[in-house]
Amino acid sequence: MERVPCDEVVRAWLARERDEPGADSLESLSSEAALDALLSENPGAAAFLWRDAPVTCYRIVLSRDEFDRLHVVPGPEELLWRALSPDGTVRGCAARIDRGDPERLARETGVDVPAIESLAASMPAVDEPLVLSTRRGATPWYVADGNHRATATALALRRGGEYVPVPAYLCVGANPVLEPLVQRVRGLFRGLRRDSKTQ
């Protein structure tokens, strides 16, 4: 696990959103402008970058077990990826596609299932890192960027393909529930120490 600047993740993701050759083509943008552009391009999936700030990012390579536990991008259960996956996992998407009609699933969910089928058939190694989000001290890891690629890989694996380790950026945000609790516990201990010193 190698720590990387959040700006590296934002620029790589923005380059994919804009279908540009690489993050180098975005050099003229400041970090703030790149984040703003990404939030404009993909406001739902990228929202964790500001909502869970501060976010610490790492470059990792997913083991098969880690890959198998990935969840699709968060969202309402009846929309897009959550509609496609009964249990909210990437593997759940692949299982449903494997036993369903791609065109019907695409109509029902709004996910481009035929494109996933096409990617799975060619079984390309995922060379562009997935972008994963989670919160400190929490599980699971959600695929913020790369749901099509991740699902295609899971589908190919279901059909007998061999797992090739998948690169990813793991972005770990602050936990808005855990952090206040930790602060309160620290405050309680500080208060107890002060009380014991005054006695």
What does this 3D model show about the protein?
This protein has 199 residues and is of the alpha+beta class. The chain is built from 10 helices and 5 strands. Strands 1-2-5-3-4 form a 5-stranded mixed β-sheet. It is globular and about 75 Å long. 32% of the residues are buried. The model has no long low-confidence stretch (mean pLDDT 89).
Helix-strand topology string? EHHHEHHHHHEEHEH
Low-confidence stretches: none
Cross-sheet strand order for the largest sheet: 1-2-5-3-4
Helix content: 40-55%
Strand content: 5-15%
> Can you summarize the main beta sheet?
5 strands, mixed
Counted by DSSP, the helix tally is 10
Structural class: alpha+beta
Put the structure in a nutshell.
With 199 residues, the protein is of the alpha+beta class. It has helices spanning 6-17, 31-41, 48-51, 64-68, 80-84, 90-98, 102-109, 113-122, 147-158, 178-198, and strands spanning 2-4, 56-62, 130-135, 142-145, 166-173. Strand 3 and strand 4 form a beta hairpin.
